[in-house]
Amino acid sequence: MQARDDIPAARIAVAPRLFGGDAAAGGAWTRQQVFFERTLLDRLADVGALVVGTGLAATPARATSAAIAYAQCCDGLLLQGGTNLARSADDLTPLDRARDAFEFALLEAFRALGKPVLGICRGLQLINVAYGGTLRDLDATEAKHHSDPPAYAAHAHRVSFSEGGRLAQLYGIAGGRVSSAHRQAVARLGDGLVVEATCEADSCIEAVRADADAFVLGVQWHPEFDHDGDGRIAGAHLLHHFVDSARDGPPRGSRPPPRSDDTTR
């Protein structure tokens, strides 16, 4: 499925991954880096997206204002994969806290404007925590279904779509094989989220949707790892659906409605 050249590109904000720096690597790699996996950017461009890399907010205090600015000038938000997330809003495990804080702010800003959000792998987990859910680490038996580091993008397992759900309607099938690479999973489902897919092998939650939002969807697999002809469901189909929804959503420059506790009204 290819993007048409005569249709304006949808601006998709993509939050970066974070590399902490390696003193043994030499040169620029000794410093902290933010980056994007090339395959993801290529797949988004293929379906008509103009990618806008968000970077990270310099300080937590600036996260909210920066996130609102991105939400106003972009059409949709994609939260990509990466390192493990804190298991709940109260978890103090020192992971990528700067990234966590900024992505929570981005999610809130895009939701406030009613603009589509797609979470991939870690992105699904962040959506779940943002809605009040929790995460858990997969045990050794479960992990082998969901991740194989040497194989990485080639690793796959089967998922079942929830009957009548958004993914079941989008694909018109009961499920299929998907590419995954994760060692965390949903423990308690977030408030207002509904399950869109589960793993056939162990019933692990594989996709969620926010019931009250127009388009907030998270998948535990990687739709950008599309393998044509090997029996996996077409990841490009989901990405195209997301980008089309972003293009047809609220206009750029719109502002969020005032909050109930906003004293500036």
TrEMBL record:
The keyword Cytoplasm does not apply. Residues 243-265 are annotated as: Disordered. SUPFAM superfamilies: Class I glutamine amidotransferase-like. Pfam families: Peptidase_C26 (PF07722). Keywords: Glutamine amidotransferase, Transferase. GO terms for biological process: polyamine catabolic process. One of its GO terms (molecular function) is transferase activity. InterPro entries: Class_I_gatase-like, Peptidase_C26, PuuD-like. GO terms for cellular component: cytosol. This is Putative glutamine amidotransferase. Signal peptide: none annotated.
